[in-house]
């Protein structure tokens, strides 16, 4: 969607899918839904269909077009592993990530079981690529901790947790095989409160297990004022990033067209090549 992002833990967002459905308490105040619904019915707007699920194949090749290495949050406005998205399309997204390997990708889902199953099967060609980080949301114990267990089964090089919005104390965490943890409170109208002890409990366990810890924000109605300091310091931990040479634009665009055509078949002639 955007070559630049204001999200603290990424550089850019890429949305080859738009729209989603809610699956757990962390979705209650979904910022993507609020944003998308604002434009429902606006002719020609990317979110003319509000938050309804929609594939955007003309966006598939976008990272191949970007010639400066970036950290890219994949589907900030959706969830790549929701049931309504065909495996063929998810595979095309993964192929772009494998080809455009000068970027680092953060793929975050609440549909952890489907992600784990695909990474063991159809997406195994992308699973262990060190520049693709696979993550799950962990907002509470009931829904979040089973996702953590699913993620630990994934044959990935980098696995991460987005503990956001943190809704309760998570207790003792099994951080085996986890390489990064982000924590944050909810922000905006009606934001649910975040207790400091819930945050420090996660931070202390990350420190004990040598897992990089990133504290995104306290959140609340005035998130800027609340800031992101914890015990007088800012926590900006990240996993180690790999670095690969950028492919020439002509080659990268050829790959983009090939992946798009492979996915869309004869229909690909009808697609705008790239936006
Ligand atoms: S899974 Fe993510 S994008 Fe989908 S409704 Fe929930 S918070 Fe929003």
Task: Describe the protein's architecture and organization.
The protein is an alpha/beta fold and 275 residues long. The protein has a seven-stranded parallel beta sheet with strand order 1-4-5-6-7-8-9. Strands 2-3 form a two-stranded antiparallel sheet. It has a two-stranded antiparallel sheet with strand order 10-11. The structure holds iron/sulfur cluster (SF4). The site of iron/sulfur cluster has 11 residues, from helix 1.
What are the main properties of this structure?
single chain; 275 residues; alpha/beta; 7-stranded parallel beta sheet; two-stranded antiparallel sheet; 9 helices; 11 strands; 29% helix; binds iron/sulfur cluster
Order of helices and strands: EEHEHEHEHHEHEEHEHEEH
Strand content: 15-25%
Strand order of the largest sheet: 1-4-5-6-7-8-9
| Rounded mean pLDDT score | 94
Radius of gyration: 18 Å
Uncertain regions: pLDDT < 50 for 5+ in a row? none
> Shape, please?
globular
Largest sheet: 7 strands, parallel
Which ligands appear in the coordinates?
iron/sulfur cluster
Structural class: alpha/beta
What is the share of helical residues? 25-40%
């Amino acid at each position: 969607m955007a070559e630049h992002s204001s999200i603290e833990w990424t550089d850019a967002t890429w949305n080859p899918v738009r729209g989603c459905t809610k699956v757990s308490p962390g979705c209650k105040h979904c910022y993507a839904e609020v944003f998308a619904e604002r434009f429902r019915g606006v002719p020609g707007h990317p979110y003319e269909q509000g938050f309804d699920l929609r594939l955007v194949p003309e966006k598939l090749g976008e990272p191949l077009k970007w010639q400066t290495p970036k950290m890219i949050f994949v589907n900030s406005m959706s969830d790549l592993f929701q049931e309504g998205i065909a495996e063929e399309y998810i595979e095309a997204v993964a192929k772009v990530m494998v080809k455009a390997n000068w970027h680092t990708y953060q793929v975050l889902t609440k549909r952890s079981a489907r992600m784990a199953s695909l990474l063991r099967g159809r997406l195994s060609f992308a699973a262990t690529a060190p520049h693709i980080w696979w993550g799950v949301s962990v907002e509470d114990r009931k829904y979040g901790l089973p996702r953590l267990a699913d993620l630990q089964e994934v044959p990935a090089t980098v696995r991460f947790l987005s503990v956001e919005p943190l809704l309760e104390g998570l207790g003792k965490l099994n951080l085996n095989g986890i390489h990064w943890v982000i924590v944050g409170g909810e922000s905006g109208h009606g934001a649910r409160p975040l207790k400091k002890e819930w945050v420090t409990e996660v931070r202390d366990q990350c420190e004990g297990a040598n897992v990089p810890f990133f504290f995104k924000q306290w959140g609340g109605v005035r998130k800027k004022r609340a800031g992101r300091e914890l015990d007088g310091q800012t926590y900006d931990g990240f996993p180690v990033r790999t670095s690969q040479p950028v492919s020439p634009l002509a080659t990268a665009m050829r790959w983009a067209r090939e992946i798009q055509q492979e996915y869309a078949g004869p229909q690909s002639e009808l697609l705008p090549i790239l936006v």
